[in-house]
Each structure stands twice: as C-alpha cells, then as structure tokens.
Amino acid sequence: MVTGADILRVATREIGYHEKAYHHNKYGEWYGLDGKPWCMEFVQWVYHNAGLDLPFRTASCGTLLRWYQERQPDCISKTPISGCVVIFDLPNTDSETDHTGLFVQAFGDKITTIDGNTSCGNDANGGWVQQRQRSIKKTKPVYIIPRGLAEVVDIDKLISQMTDEQAYKLYCKAEKHMSTLPLPTSWDAAGELREAKLMGITDGESPMIPTPRYQTAIMCKRTLANSLNYIKEEK
After folding, report:
1. Which of 33, 57, 84, 110 has the most crowded CB, counting CB atoms within 10 A?
2. Largest Cα–Cα distance in the chain?
3. Ranges in the chain annotated CATH 3.90.1720.10
C-alpha cells in the first residue's frame, strides 16, 4: 500500500531542484522526453519512486485527465487526499489543463501543492521544484486519486475534532457492529461465557459489546463477592 505520506516524502526531497540549460532535467531524462515542459514528468517520476506507477504514461496534463475521465472516472474526486494528483486551470490561458502538482493541503481558498517546472514568476514553466500556494477559485483544481493510493487517517486528531454528538454516534455504530461478531474460537470463550452467566456477571446477551469502565468495575466487584460466597459455602 502506498500512502499520501509516501508520495509527499519523495516529492519533498526534490524541492529546490532546478533544470539545466535548454530545459534539461532528470525527470524528463527518466521519462525519455527531456527538454520539454516537465510538470507531469515530475509527477510520474514521484509516483514511480514511491512505488505506485500511474496507470497511464503521459507527459501531458490534459491527456492524463482525459484518460481518467474515460477509463477510471471514479478516481476523479471533489475531495483531495495527501499526495493525490492536482490538475490546474491557470488564469489567462486558453487551456483548461495548464499544470499539475501533488496535493499537500487546502485551507480556506488556498491550496498547497508540490510542483515540478514551476516558479513564482512562471506557474507552469518555471524550471524549479517548489512547494506552491495558489487560489482555488482562480486555478480551479481537479483532483485525481489514483487507485492504490491510500490516505492514513490521524485517529487522535480525528477524535479530538469530534463533537460529543459525533463521538456518541460513532460509539453506537461500533457497538452495533461488535454485537454481530461471533465469540472467539482461539480460546474457550463459550465456556467462559457460561461461567460468567452462572456467576451472575452477565445475562449472556450481546457478549461481544465492549463495556464502559464503571460496568467493568461493577462486574469485578460482583465476581469477587460471588467468589467469597462460594468459599464460605465450601467451608
């Protein structure tokens, strides 16, 4: 599995690279079409070196987008993930597919990407690998999430941003899912459940649902009390 972090790790190491005379660059040389506009060659190179080749080999932004539109339209998304391919429609041009880069983040109306063949003086043919920030409204980005690219979710960050209502709904969904799971077979879970029912710890319904701490504490106390009663009876 290749993640967005893998893609950006490779791309970040390239920041600061500059083409040589006559537009010669290592990405075009690798691709086999050196000396030409190389923003898409950079994207292809990064994906290759991260371990996930794009399914269609091209040096053209428009050709790649059309390929996805015709062959894998499900990969074109309104919601980007880290490392996905971004196709830009830059202002004041006749083309709708002027430039490409790799998505880093978006905030408000700004999108941050890592691009090849760019610069502040020339967005689409500037000769540098740079991290750029542009207006979403002005550049109309289209996001392509290639098959095989996965996003690693920061669970702690996700939970910290949840409201109490969202957290409760998530817990209810998890509880519902757990209630459908069978008892484990790697140990005698069924025997342990029968014993727990005899001791009065549980009624045996939905044994796979997790319990809050207070319920666990009550069950432990009940187990201890039943054990003491059992010892007294034995004596």
Report:
1. 84
2. 97
3. 2-150
**DSSP single-letter state for residue 207:** T
E strand or H helix that includes residue 85: strand 85-88
pTM of the model: 0.69
CATH class of 2-150: alpha beta
Q: What's the CA gap between 140 and 51, in Å, rounded? A: 29
Nearest to 61 by CA among 123, 135, 130, 136: 123
Do 130 and 114 contact (CB within 8 A), yes or no? yes
Which of these, 31, 35, 32, lies nearest to 43 by C-alpha position? 31
205: nearest Cα among 186, 187, 179, 184: 179
| CA–CA–CA angle 46, 50, 55 (5° rounding) | 75
Closest CA to 196 of 216, 171, 178: 216
Instruction: Find out whether 1 and 150 touch, Cβ atoms under 8 Å.
Output: yes
What are the tokens at 106?
């978006």
Q: What share of the chain is helix, strand, coil (3-state, %, to 5)?
A: 45, 15, 40
For residue 108, which amino acid is it? G
Taking only the tens place, the pLDDT of each residue in 171-211 is: 888 888 888 888 888 888 888 888 888 877 778 888 888 87
Are 117 and 19 in contact, with CB atoms under 8 Å apart? yes
Burial class (CB in 10 A: 0-12, 13-18, 19+), 145: buried
Please write down the HEC assignment for all residues of 124-148.
CCCCEEEEEEEEHHHHCCEEECCCC
